[in-house]
Amino acid sequence: MTVRVPAKVNLWLGVGPVRDDGYHDLVNVFHAVSLFDEVTAAPADALAVTAAAAPGARVAIEGVPLGGDNLAARAARLVAARLGVEPRVALAIRKAIPVAGGMAGGSADAAAALVACARLWDDPADPKLDLDALLALGAELGSDVPFALLGGTAVGLGRGERLTPVPAAGPFHWVFATADGGLSTPAVYAECDRLRSAEGVRAAWPHEPPELAAALAAGDAAALGAALGNDLQPAALMLRPSLRRTLDAGAALGALGALVSGSGPTCAFLAADAEHAADLARVLAAEGVARDTVRAHGPVPGATVLDAAAE
Asked: pTM of the predicted model, to two decimals?
């Protein structure tokens, strides 16, 4: 059983004040792009997780936890508990999504594991875990997991888990510039709070700009590029100042929009078309402002079953 799952880029990430539970209220416009991990699940004597880079992908596999903290392993245990079975499964993760890069690679793997394990263990004649149930399980695992199940383009509210699909004419063409090492998401949020406190800024209730929704619906890449935004970007730049050089280089090369993806450190650049994306990726790589560059387009579907032979 193999499930393919996409990376995401945050077209808009509005961060509100800290809630009583320690999270922030968010308005998060997710966009799934054609950079995929694959998770293969097969029956085994015990739960085990392995990880490898996808062919041609330069990802920091050493950064993928293989123990009980791995989100895919937690997803498998959650599905098993809901279905009343033992989590006896081998999960083989093949990664192309940057590790700790702000593109929800771990959450994507968790979403793939939810789908794969549900297909392995649920009763096909009387399934207990439909898409709505999997979305609810995903929300228990993390804020980005439900969107990896859904894909496309969607607005996420709350911690990002309450999703509403958004029409997007697309395709939109992207270049992603990866960096050496990752950025801790909790550290970036903490730095965002620190910067606001130091500057005397009171966090406002976040909102989605109407011009962004209009650009998506019209398939207008130039308008979309102008509407991109990320409240976490100043914090990411403070923790990793070198990202400013990467963003500036992409903007100077004619990117329609440039921003840090999520909590970083991956930088996302919106191109006018596929040819522009190819040129942008080539020149960014030559200028040495990124560990690697990769092209993708969006929106694309969420978690998709590729191979059910292991059932």
From this structure: 0.92
